[in-house]
Write a structure and sequence with these properties.
Helices cover about 45% and strands about 15% of the residues. The chain has nine helices and ten strands. Helix 2 packs parallel to helix 4, helix 4 packs across helix 5 and helix 8 runs antiparallel to helix 9.
């Protein structure tokens, strides 16, 4: 093989279908979370939308821990849209009440989910942050406001480690059995420049390494290393040459599965993958006898799997 394979140390814990898993962070957190959701793991994926930097992820967890509900004072209006500096544009709306409803309904569900979660998957994307000039707070999304409204700076390793040490201790008190899996997004932030992108990623990697030394219930999954070493060829990137391609995402998902799923969970996943593929199948001739028989077989297999694994009843989208 013309590649250098990244060796992943065996973690001290496995993920099973009995677990509840929340993901927070960059697009990669969305990708892995969606892969898990597609095979019926119990997931809550990015309740604030995509988050890129460690401070925004930390602030989001703080909001969930405190059961914060947003009011109109937490929003701002720009170009006819009500928006939140804590959320992606998915939550924005022309109507302030509709915006608040989207935010607060999601927060209620996510706060409850976090308190019952077994795993928290955090993906850092960049060490660069944008601080609002007026308040000095780090924003999760600038929402295309003028650059002059923000101060841009790079976090230090010590800042990240100090803040996350406090957060992790707090989470341990609130949810004693919670395990945390960190990763660094393989997506390159090229607007920072090649050197600054690498310095940023290095800052994140060193911070996570220090946190691993401090806490025994933290694991690190090397998504970044797999992308840049095992999949270093540009054919493993999307057309923008910055994001991983679907082939790369599938491969990293395979490595993640091999790392955190035991034989039983992997066997269940294979069955659920086939069911999910059959349920999403769109035929060329939907009125054919062959497809009618396929539907009947799929219906029977689904019923059998639900009988064997009752939790699927609430996770399969009918």
């Amino acid at each position: 093989m013309f590649q250098t394979k990244v060796e992943i140390p065996r973690p001290l814990f496995n993920i099973s279908y009995e677990n509840r898993i929340m993901t927070l962070g960059s697009c990669f957190a969305e990708n892995i979370g969606k892969k898990m959701q597609d095979v019926y793991f119990d997931m809550d994926i990015n309740p604030f939308g995509v988050l890129y930097n460690p401070v925004s992820i930390l602030n989001s967890l703080d909001i969930l821990i405190n059961n914060k509900q947003f009011t109109k004072n937490d929003l701002f209006e720009n170009r006819g849209l009500w928006q939140s500096f804590s959320h992606s544009s998915l939550f924005s709306d022309t109507d302030v009440d509709a915006c608040l409803a989207k935010i607060n309904n999601r927060l209620i569900n996510a706060s409850d989910f976090l308190r019952q979660a077994d795993f928290l998957l955090i993906t850092f994307g960049t060490a660069w942050v944008y601080e609002e000039q007026k308040s000095g707070r780090v924003v999760s999304n600038c929402h295309k406001l003028p650059a002059s409204d923000f101060n841009r700076r790079r976090l230090t390793i010590d800042e990240i480690v100090a803040d996350y040490s406090i957060l992790i201790n707090r989470l341990s008190e609130l949810i004693p059995d919670l395990k945390v899996i960190f990763s660094v997004s393989p997506i390159r932030h090229w607007k920072d420049g090649a050197h600054e992108n690498n310095v940023s990623k290095g800052t994140l990697l060193l911070a996570i390494d220090e946190l691993q030394k401090r806490f025994s219930h933290i694991s690190y999954f090397p998504a970044y290393e797999i992308q840049v070493d095992e999949l270093r060829d540009y054919r493993f990137y999307a057309s923008d040459m910055l994001h991983p391609s679907e082939v790369a995402i599938d491969y990293i998902w395979k490595r993640f599965s091999e790392t955190y799923f035991n034989e039983k969970t992997s066997g269940m996943k294979r069955q659920f993958e086939q069911l999910a593929a059959d349920l999403s199948h769109r035929p060329l001739h939907p009125d054919s006898e062959e497809f009618k028989q396929f539907l009947e077989n799929t219906k029977n297999r689904k019923a059998k799997l639900i009988s064997d694994f009752p939790f699927l009843l609430n996770r399969i989208k009918f």
